[in-house]
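User: For a benchmark we're assembling, each entry needs the component sequences followed by a predicted structure for the full assembly. Here are entry 17's components. Please fill in the structure.
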Amino acid sequence: MPTVREDVQYDPSNAEDILRFAKELKGKTLGEWIIDHENDRPPVNRKGRFGQILEDVVFGIPNNSKKAPDLEDVGIEIKSTPIKIEGKKKVPKERIVLSMINYMTLLEEGWDMSFFKKNGKLLIIFYLYEKRKRISEYKILDAILWEYPEEDLRIIRDDWNVIARMVKEGRAHEISERHTMYLAACRKGISNDKDSQRQPYSDEKALRRAFSLKQSYVGQIWKSADSESIVRCANMNKTFEEEVLDRFTPYVGRSTDEIEAMLGITFEKNPKSRYAILANKMLGVKTKNIAEFEKADVYMKTIRLKADGVPKESMSFPSFDYTEIVRQKWEDSDFYNQLNRRFLFVIYRADGDGLRFENAMFWSMPQEDLQEAERVWKKAVQSFKESRFTERPKMTESKVSHVRPHGQSGKDRVMANDGSMQKKMCFWLNAKYLAEQIKTCGQRKI
DNA sequence: GCATGATCATGC
DNA sequence: GCATGATCATGC
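Assistant: Structure for entry 17:
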């Protein structure tokens, strides 16, 4: 029996071609395939039905539960997973369920055979789940070929070991999803005795379980589908930071007009985000979601210097929630988390009427300044606790940071910890402090 | 010229 | 509709 039907429009032995075919599904619905099958395949909304139809009708792979991946030649397993709309965001609706766990054979099969061989490479089709629609109407959002990044694989392998160890210790019946990080043993089927499984080192029956990728991890995969990778095609001998800074090199010293001309962009108006947009363009990416930036928690900020090298403005951070902040400790506060990461400063300097791109640099806050920020934060929190909302730390009181309004207008108010309505505020890094940091950091040279 | 308050533009 | 990054405006 052939692995795939003969009329499929892709080459099942060529991963690239499979991905091409899958990408072409974007924007389509299963309805486009199953019209002719309406009678024998009523599109009832039933768990897993979307995946079955997709594999069968679109990819031409008959339903099976064999050990080998769906596309055996290239070792690719096809998975479809629903995305739902939550507020304004699209997020995964479920975990992705992988192969069943067979407690009796798990240990002898080992990591490779029991897990990696079938689940190591996934072709993931994301579709938009909409409550009132039939599955033939769900729109396919995206398709990606997923291979686990090295650092994720380490964690997943640890997760697998946790599960295997419990089987080895005769505790398969105690396995739970909360024991693992990315990979989980999720329950499968109904929880009655009839459905329970034997395990090798105990007489106790264990629930049927399958390997699955946790919903939060699916969220990471989904996000990465949506972002771009800088190092994907980069020179492997360079570090990530070197690669990033190199992208900016051709523009160093050029005026923003020149850069815009080089990049072929024009601004009709003069949006406040102009230089941030320009920074993204110089990096050579279309979106803001640069995969490595997200993973490494790098925070890109544009800075405009006056001719004398001092930033024109202080640097703002997201506004805080009074009710939250008074309950938080410094170590788990938002401001601490915002500061305690790597920054990428994209720096422009005033030159005549316009601006010149000076350079880009990575920066992290020195420890002693982080302590100073902590002092400012604690002072602000103390004032809020005592309902002294106007006595917030001013720029003159600390060399590092201060608190200032940050709303959409002066009328932009939020509920404070004492129930009163107060102006929306945020922490800022002082312009002068930034000037000093840029100077010392700049001497280390990019 | 600087500190502080206020607001704009974008995108989710 | 609002959070966010960024910048503008004003008064001392």
